[in-house]
Amino acid sequence: MGMTNEKLLIVDDDADLLNIYEKIFRLNGFDVVVTPDSHCALELAETENIGVVITDIIMPKIGGKELFNRIMEIDPAIQVIMLTGEGSVSDAVEYVKAGAFTYILKFEEPLNSILLLPSTVISGTFLRMSSTLAVLASLSSATL
Questions:
Q1: How far is the C-alpha of 63 from the C-alpha of 56, rounded, in Å?
Q2: How many beta carbons lie within 10 A of that of residue 142, not counting itself?
Q3: What mean pLDDT value characterizes the chain?
Q4: Beta bridge partners of 130
Q5: Over the Cα atoms of the chain, what is R_g?
Q6: Distance, CA of 57 to CA of 43 (rounded, Å)
Q7: pLDDT recorded at residue 34
Q8: Is the pLDDT of residue 27 over 80?
Q9: 69-to-17, 21, 88, 130 alpha-carbon distances in Å
């Protein structure tokens, strides 16, 4: 990677949520690419300048765990945020130990804890992960 203008890739098989995520992140100044399909996400990770991936964990065909592992094989500099409606503390620990930036439970992550996450350097470009996560948190509270 190492290029500027890195994109945010969002992968979720819920078309309604994907549409909401895309609109909100674009409104917050992110260059966003979205797909409901894990295979397409892998192609995008190989061909686009992706800096961050937000992926749902429970998806058809290739689930989030396998998608995460394959993205790490493509480019370990890509920061991955695991997103799920169902999960456990042990799942979160497993993903973070494997290299995920963080693990978020949809609709449950408190906004103020997300905002405390530091800005992160991704492939030489400053990308404000805290603002990415804050947008996710605001989406979670808005859809309740």
A1: 8
A2: 10
A3: 74
A4: none
A5: 14
A6: 18
A7: 96
A8: no
A9: 23, 23, 19, 23
Ranges assigned E (strand) in the chain: 7-11, 32-35, 50-56, 79-84, 102-105, 120-122, 125-127
Q: Output 138 or 114, whichever has higher pLDDT.
A: 138
If DSSP codes are grouped into helix, strand and coil, which group holds residue 105? strand
What contacts 43, CB < 8 A, 6 or more positions away? none
The angle subtended at Cα 66 by Cα 99 and Cα 31, nearest 5°, is: 70
Nearest one of 52, 55, 36, 33 to 44, comparing CA atoms: 33
Predicted structure pTM score: 0.73
Quickly tell me which residue has 């966003």 as its tokens. Answer: 32
In a 10 Å sphere around its CB, with 0-12 CB exposed, 13-18 middle and 19+ buried, how is residue 94 labelled?
middle
Would the pLDDT of 117 be above 70?
no
Q: Topology of domain 7-142, per CATH?
A: Rossmann fold (3.40.50)
Residue 116 has pLDDT above 60, yes or no: no
